[in-house]
Automatic annotation (TrEMBL):
This is Argininosuccinate lyase. HAMAP family: Arg_succ_lyase (MF_00006). It is an enzyme of class 4 (lyase). GO terms for biological process: L-arginine biosynthetic process via ornithine. PROSITE patterns: FUMARATE_LYASES (PS00163). It holds the Pfam family ASL_C2. The gene is argH. Residues 7-301 form the Fumarate lyase N-terminal domain. Residues 364-431 form the Argininosuccinate lyase C-terminal domain. It is found in: Cytoplasm.
Length: 457
């Protein structure tokens, strides 16, 4: 096969060289975007009188045919044609004859590929945002059911203070809200059109870049052709936003895994989101949560990969940039999958409220309440902390909890302690009384949920 750029070459490359350089194996995922870009480009060429209307008509008809074939999965791509751009151009000329060669007037693969990537991410980021929001809705629904479900809250993975289980779930709502914000804000930088930058210096043809932007639905065009063809910041930003999203999903996944253990048993995952073991019949494994935690690694890797690709490349386009694609496709695929799975996993999981209730009644997570009680009665908090610590130590020695310690024993440490301390020590009270803004008090959690709902509507 002769190359579309073969004019100045005396001999052809070895097939394995072609294979190494080709991107068609993966950039065929850009087929729709590439066709879209071409439709806009040739329409603009026509409007500017650079091509005549007959030529434009022929090319548009050819592109339309390629599009229906692409939709039907009937396009055959060849490594010899290197990438999606040359594959489609070859198919077009095979289909409509030499006039197909006019499509590339005033355009280069450099502005073409950058345009495809912008178009691709513009669509995918919308999908990501939709899936984040669907997951947020599910979290919100679960939270609403568990405002008054008391659970142990942890620091250092040690029981810290009793909380509303809804409060714990809602923490992830807000992480996802920030993720959504970041993806939304990144749109501003994805929504810039490189087309018309040519290879890197612009073109002598009287093109209208604003027109192309309008046709493709971009709100701006790059104002520097060299920047236009070499900018991959918007992809780095996407990978970075995805990495942070995966960090959040991975932390949540880790909790789901811990909560599902026999040791915790705070939740049970639905069968549909669990797997069995081939040897141990009793097992029900939280594979999906583990996989999401595990896949976080590849998304971080994709970010590091692209940053490293870019750091040593002089302006403008270098073939290194072809390496921007696989990591991006992989990341899109990974985060869309992870969000979808996670939503279903949380929607269908059962919260073991009794277990949570008993967990919180058999620990010292109400110790802060005792210290606060003393501080409220005028004892300096440091001293109150010390007194409480001593009472906790007494309980540990006797194998009981603070609520079981008789008032006489309590008063040995401080006369400020009176019978009403037991009300304060109840885990429900510990949660209920935390009225501070953003705290775990039931009223605060309800306010939080209302605000969250308003954000989504
Ligand atoms: N396949 C190439 C890429 O993905 C397209 C741009 C090629 N441009 C060039 N001058 N070789 O980056």
């Amino acid at each position: 096969m002769t190359k579309l750029w073969g004019g100045r070459f005396q001999k052809s490359a070895e097939s394995w060289v072609d294979e190494f350089g080709a991107s068609i194996g993966f950039d065929q995922q850009l087929v729709m975007e590439d066709l879209e870009g071409s439709v806009a480009h040739v329409t603009m060429l026509g409007a500017q009188g650079i091509l005549d209307s007959k030529e434009v008509e022929q090319i548009l008809a050819g592109l339309a045919e390629l599009k229906s074939k692409a939709e039907a999965g009937e396009l055959e791509f060849h490594v010899a044609n290197e990438d999606i751009h040359l594959n489609l151009e070859k198919m077009l000329t095979d289909l409509i004859g030499p006039v197909g060669g006019k499509l590339h007037t005033g355009r280069s693969r450099n502005d073409q590929v950058a345009t495809d990537m912008h178009l691709f991410l513009k669509k995918r980021v919308v999908e990501v945002i939709e899936l984040i929001e669907a997951f947020q809705k599910t979290i919100l629904q679960k939270a609403e059911q568990h405002v008054e479900t008391i659970a142990p809250g942890y620091t250092h993975l040690q029981r810290a203070q009793p909380i509303s289980f809804a409060h714990h779930l809602m923490a992830y709502f807000w992480m996802l809200e920030r993720d959504k914000e970041r993806f939304n804000e990144s749109m501003k930088r994805i929504d810039i059109l490189p087309l018309g930058a040519g290879a890197m210096a612009g073109t002598t043809f009287p093109i209208d870049r604003e027109k192309s932007a309008e046709l493709l639905g971009f709100s701006k065009v790059y104002l520097n052709s060299m920047d236009a063809v070499s900018d991959r910041d918007f992809i780095v930003e996407f990978l970075s936003n995805s990495s942070l999203l995966m960090t959040h999903l991975s932390r949540f996944a880790e909790e789901i895994i811990i909560w599902s253990t026999d040791e915790f048993k705070f939740i049970e995952l639905d069968d549909a989101f669990s797997t069995g073991s081939s040897i141990m019949p009793q097992k029900k494994n939280p594979d999906m949560a583990e996989l999401i935690r595990g896949k976080t690694g590849r998304v971080y890797g994709n970010l590091m990969g692209l940053l490293t690709v870019l750091k040593g490349t002089p302006l403008t386009y270098n073939k290194d940039m072809q390496e921007d694609k696989e990591g991006m496709f992989d990341t899109v695929h990974t985060i869309l999958g992870a969000l979808k799975i996670f939503e279903g996993m949380v929607r269908t999981m059962t919260v073991n409220t009794e277990r949570l209730h008993s967990a919180v009644h058999s620990d010292f997570s109400n110790a802060t309440e005792l210290a606060d009680y003393l501080a409220t009665k005028g004892m300096p908090f440091r001293e109150a902390h010390e007194v409480t610590g001593k009472l906790v130590f007494t309980c540990i020695q006797r194998g009981i909890f603070l609520l079981d310690l008789p008032i006489e024993d309590m008063r040995k440490e401080s006369e400020l302690l009176e019978a009403d301390v037991y009300d304060v020590l109840k885990p429900e009270a510990a949660v209920r009384r935390r009225h501070s803004l953003g705290g775990t008090g039931f009223d605060q959690v309800r306010i939080q949920i209302d605000k969250a709902k308003a954000l989504l509507s």
